[in-house]
Design goal:
Helices cover 64% and strands 3% of the residues. The protein has 21 helices and 3 strands. It folds into 2 domains: 119 residues; 333 residues, Orthogonal Bundle (Neurolysin, domain 3). It is mainly alpha-helical and 500 residues long. The longest helix has 30 residues. The chain is globular. The mean pLDDT is 96. A 3-stranded mixed beta sheet has the order 1-3-2, with helices on both faces. Bound molecules: zinc ion (ZN).
Length: 500
């Protein structure tokens, strides 16, 4: 191996990583503490850093270094880094700079028109901008190239290696059993009372409570923070500095508690990545889908489990005594696990959520594939919601205008949310086999065995394995819908009194 070329490449990459992490921190600040008049200056700072990062990544010197490292190498760190840098470089240099700039400009205007369109529930306002973004994204996909479907080239940015055909196969086999299950739930004899979660939960108490929950599961506050933002997120500069945000609603218990467990799940992954490889692929998360599997695992498989609340409900009841004194553990557990068809994705329960994603995936795939026109989106959306989720939006604000992603030209991102649920189920099923008393540990508030398992099996590898390879290695089989469907029926059928 050409050692000079490799160390030169890595030092370039670390500098790009430092630029990107400075951007992430400025972004975090913009969402949390920045005064509103700071926006114009911040936009310029971020644009400059984005340009510097892009210029450095696409510098022909990077291409020359990669070319010098083109022979096989048996050091897995080198092999991982060279493979992934090559992938990024090839992708970035295939897209003409003029196209990148055009997308950035159109997105700024499109985001504004989307906000207006959503406020007035008027799709026509957004339509021309969306049409332009779809067209530009198709140009990006064509520039990158693809084997079978144009959408492959876009998904690959977020979930490297997966294909449209594979997602279609997984989602279409997931759809019918989930839709049937949701229907069975709606006719089930037992019903939860979710209104108990809409009583008064003082925000100051929630702040202490959420911080405690994140610390309980292992989030390290010496290497991270929790703050408040309108849309919760987790952004990591490095394993030693991970920023979570959450959102507190006085009249809705779930928002902050499960939002915090979700973001802390992302945070545990970031804190568990190998610090020695910071700013290089060997020290970074595999994909958005794998990232989402970590958040979903802690939020739902742990945080919405019965043992978890057997351990924490007495404390929770004491902390929020005005709201919960007369609520039994059974009623509370049922309420936090309520399943009901709803219009808005971000408010959906863990079962119907996947159906919301399938609606978006099918529309995106057909749009980018040229099988659906932009003008046909509202009707396609409403039709699919009625068939899959069992509820039909009455206006576009509650329908196809609800999410911000398309206004930013983000096509190919949505599938990773549902893939995250499938990965999480498959990982968790395997963890339960490897740690036979896992649920007892959770019931005692002991999370170290699970966290250690995730560290060893997933976190410490960075991008060494592609998502499909990682799933195969961890669980002994390829990604499948079965673990998720088993989890759903094992947990919810008894809760709702449904015969399987
Ligand atoms: Zn997430």
């Amino acid at each position: 191996m050409d050692n000079d070329a490799y160390s030169n490449l890595i030092s370039r990459l670390r500098e790009i990583g430092q630029i990107d992490s400075a951007s992430a921190l400025l972004d975090w600040d913009a969402e949390t503490y920045m005064p509103k008049n700071g926006l114009a200056v911040r936009a310029e700072q971020l644009a400059l850093l984005a340009r510097l990062s892009h210029e450095r990544m696409t510098d022909s010197a990077v291409g020359d270094l990669i070319a010098r490292l083109d022979e096989p190498c048996d050091d897995e760190v080198v092999e991982t880094n060279v493979r992934e840098i090559k992938r990024h470089y090839t992708r970035a240099t295939k897209i003409p700079t003029s196209l990148v700039e055009r997308i950035a400009r159109v997105s700024t205007v499109a985001k504004e028109s989307w906000q207006k369109a959503r406020e007035n529930s008027h799709f026509e306002t957004f339509k021309p901008h969306l049409a332009e973004l779809v067209d530009l994204r198709c140009q990006v996909a064509d520039a990158i190239g693809y084997a079978t479907e144009r959408y492959d080239a876009l998904v690959d940015e977020f979930e490297p290696g997966i294909t449209t055909a594979e997602i279609t196969r997984l989602f279409s086999s997931l759809q019918a059993p989930l839709s049937e299950f949701v229907h069975a739930v709606s006719e089930a004899p037992s019903k939860p009372d979710p209104s108990i979660l809409q009583r008064k939960f003082p925000i100051e108490t929630q702040k202490l409570w959420c911080r405690q929950m994140a610390a309980e599961i292992g989030f390290n506050f010496d290497s991270g923070r929790i703050d408040v933002s309108t849309h919760p997120f987790c952004s990591g500069s490095a394993p030693s500095d991970v920023r979570l945000t959450t959102r507190y609603l006085e009249k809705f218990f779930n928002s902050a508690t499960f939002g915090t467990l979700h973001e802390a799940g992302h945070g545990l992954y970031e804190q568990g990545l190998p610090e020695a490889h910071v700013f290089t692929p060997r020290g970074q998360a595999v994909s958005l889908g794998i990232h989402e599997s970590q958040s979903r695992l802690w939020e739902n498989f742990v945080g919405r489990s019965r043992p978890f609340w057997e351990r924490y409900y007495p404390q929770c009841q004491l902390a929020f005594s005005d709201a919960l004194t007369d609520v039994s553990l059974d009623d509370f557990y049922f309420a936090i696990n309520a399943i009901s068809p709803s219009l808005i994705r971000v408010e959906a329960d863990e079962v119907t959520y996947n159906l919301h994603i399938i609606v978006r995936f099918e529309i995106e795939r057909d749009l980018i594939g040229g099988k659906l026109a932009v003008g046909e989106i509202p009707e396609a959306w409403n039709e699919k919601m009625a068939t899959l989720v069992g509820i039909r939006p009455e206006n576009d604000a509650d329908g196809c205008l609800q999410d911000i992603h398309w206004s930013m030209g983000g096509f190919g991102y949505f599938p990773t949310y549902a893939l995250g649920n499938l990965y999480a189920a498959q990982f968790f099923a395997r963890a339960r086999k490897d740690i036979p008393n896992l649920m007892d540990f959770i019931g005692r508030g002991e999370f170290a065995p699970l966290l250690e398992w995730l560290r060893v099996k997933i976190h410490q590898h960075g991008q060494h394995y592609r998502a499909s390879e990682l799933v195969q290695r961890v669980s002994g089989r390829a990604l499948s819908i079965e673990p998720f469907l088993d989890y759903v029926s094992d947990k919810f059928a008894p809760l709702y009194g449904i015969d399987d």
